[in-house]
Amino acid sequence: PAYLLSGSNDCSVKLLDFRSGAFTSAKELPPHESCVRGVCTSSHPTTNTSLLVTCGGKLTMEFYLLDHSSADIDASVMALCSYRTTGSKATIDHRMNTVRSVPLPSDRNYHFAVSGDSEGNLHVVIVPELPNDRKTTIGEILKGNGRPVLCLELVMFNGFVLAFVGTTGGDIQLWTFSISQLIGCCGSKDGRRQLLG
Fold this sequence. Notes:
Elements: E1 2-7, E2 13-19, E3 22-29, E4 36-42, E5 49-56, E6 60-67, E7 77-84, E8 96-103, E9 110-117, E10 122-128, E11 136-137, E12 139-142, E13 149-157, E14 160-167, E15 172-178, H1 179-184, H2 189-196
Parallel strand pairs: 7-11
Antiparallel strand pairs: 1-2, 2-3, 4-5, 5-6, 6-7, 8-9, 9-10, 10-12, 13-14, 14-15
């Protein structure tokens, strides 16, 4: 089966199952507190799973794991963790507008997710395909130029993840992340802070 992940301004998130040329079933995932502005997926080529990411108002991201081997859409999705900015008073006016994720090439099945917000910042998170006991994950905020981020794309090239970021000012920014350093800091809070801070 193929799947479609969708989010809406009414805070809802749905995963639709597409088989034999038609949507056959849908699963509603837990709603966001505020509007959903972006969704994406990424998959490791050696697994039968995909990371599902949603983002939106109040600077939040939600992460789920989709198991493609399950025939039942209700049993195929598991919540992994959430990302919330710490120490901020984010309101519904503070939102993440777009999100992208890529799998990191390692045997530990990590994904690198990047989201752009309404104040021009990037939120970067490394997410494993394992549930987090705390149900939250730690990320970093990279300060942008203050113009809201409208779109971004991630491209893996020559040992780097390239993040192309478009803003409302018509700017296109390029951020580069070393894949070997990202893999090296997986699971290490201090390493991640040194790399991305």
